[in-house]
Design goal:
The chain is of the alpha+beta class. It folds into three domains: about 110 residues, TolA/TonB C-terminal domain (2-Layer Sandwich), CATH 3.30.2420.10; about 120 residues, no CATH class; about 90 residues, 2-Layer Sandwich (TolA/TonB C-terminal domain). It is built from seven helices and 18 strands. The strands form five sheets. Strands 2, 3, 4, 5, 6 and 7 form a six-stranded antiparallel sheet that branches. Strands 1-18-15-16 form a four-stranded mixed sheet. Strand 5 and strand 6 form a beta hairpin.
């Protein structure tokens, strides 16, 4: 008997039209070339956690064709943040898949043929989403391992490179961001993050569709610094730091130059960041399922099973990068309507989708029936709407 499959789709609300799809190449963007090496004084109690990544396949170091900046962490006290270790494989197109969290110990090669074990501890979702967007040369590859180590650095030892990445990639709000903004503003800066609380008369924004955007799932950033004269017009507009997206850099400078504030006291050292992402990175193909002789899954099980689906279920780090995924979940269904024996067969491109799908099936309930179900297989597809807010039809496999 061929395995019975139930189709399910999860979607998010439409993404703004400015991030609409456009043609892309997979050429790597330069990583943050506009940076300086000055040091800054700051409160010693605050620490930045700087990520460094090492990647190897079959025990040999490799470099990605495309990679973007990882977020810098923040800590109030000195402690060693545990390294993030991810195992993965590379397909023929250079995409990372089979991304799984691993202990920061002996090498544990990725094995896509083994059912996924989902630990209770967090899966380093941000790092997994970033790896899913990176590109590699010479695929397919197996037994790949990415090790991300975080080193503590006091703010008074932070370089402009560190502060730019915190300001533009981490993008938290609060007192620390204001401190970083003032330091990026330079000596005598009195403006801070944005317009220095001055009301605008005219606001211009970048056209995020212009030029060569990052590849699907990737993202780029730019930080602009400028002064404001008494008439409210921007002067001395410059790109302070960038991921290398020159078209975004130019659009950001244009937008700031065309923005006019209400008249008032001149401002010095205003800084602001702009970000954009690439096209939606669609999920890898879902494989056909083999016949399961132990399966006993009634045809109406999909009608009996009630699933609680909400847009916020989409894994946040993957939603921000517009990376789609799927999971195959096997389960039993008791006569009183409770699911059990839940097992994630596969999840792509990352185990994060399997972790969420497992929780979804575990919380599902069905109407009581005279017969239960054994080893049913549920494909759960995590899909994003297109630029028009339209979601493709959800096929039942």
């Amino acid at each position: 008997m061929r395995a019975a499959l139930i189709g399910l789709g999860l979607t998010l609300p439409p993404y703004p039209a400015l991030a609409a799809a456009s043609g892309q190449t997979l050429e790597p963007l330069q990583v943050s070339p506009v940076r300086e090496g000055r040091l800054f004084s700051a409160e010693p109690a605050s620490l930045l956690q700087i990520p460094m990544t090492e990647i190897a396949c079959d025990g040999r170091p490799i470099q990605p064709l495309y990679a973007d900046d990882l977020a810098i962490g923040v800590a109030r006290n000195a402690y060693d943040r545990a390294a993030v270790v991810l195992t993965f494989s590379v397909d023929a197109q250079g995409r990372a898949r089979d991304i799984r969290g691993a202990p920061a110990g002996p090498d544990a090669p990725s094995n896509p043929g083994v059912p996924i074990f989902i630990p209770r501890i967090g899966q380093a979702e941000d790092e997994q989403a970033a790896l899913a967007a990176w590109r590699f040369q010479g695929g397919p590859r197996v037994d790949c391992r990415a090790t991300i180590r975080y080193s503590n650095r006091p703010l008074d030892a932070a370089t402009t490179d560190d502060l730019l990445r915190y300001f533009a990639v981490t993008r938290t709000r609060g007192a620390l961001r204001e401190i970083v903004a003032k330091r990026l503003g330079g000596p005598g800066a009195d403006c801070g993050d944005g317009r220095g609380d001055r009301a605008p008369r005219t606001i211009s924004v970048p056209d995020f569709t212009i030029g060569r955007r990052p590849p699907p799932g990737g993202r780029s950033w730019t930080v602009v610094r400028w002064n404001v004269d008494a008439a409210g017009r921007a002067t001395d507009v410059e790109t302070l730091g960038s991921s290398g997206d020159v078209d975004l850099d130019g659009e950001a400078r244009r937008a700031i130059s065309e923005t006019v504030l209400r008249p008032g006291a001149p401002l010095t050292g205003c800084v602001f960041n702009f970000n954009r992402i690439g096209d939606t990175l669609t999920a890898p193909d879902m494989p056909a399922q083999a016949t399961d002789p132990q399966q006993s899954c009634p045809a109406d099980v999909s009608e009996r099973l009630r699933l609680t689906i909400a847009p916020e279920r989409f894994p946040p780090a993957f939603a921000k990068r517009r990376i789609e995924g799927w999971a195959l979940v096997r389960f039993d269904l008791a006569t009183w309507g409770q699911t059990g024996a839940i097992e994630v067969i596969d999840a792509q491109p990352s185990a994060v989708f399997g972790e969420d799908a497992r929780r979804l099936v575990a919380s599902a309930r069905a109407e009581p029936a005279l017969t239960g179900a054994v080893r049913c297989v549920l494909p759960i597809r995590y899909r994003l709407p297109d630029a028009n807010g339209t979601v493709a039809d959800l096929a039942t496999d």
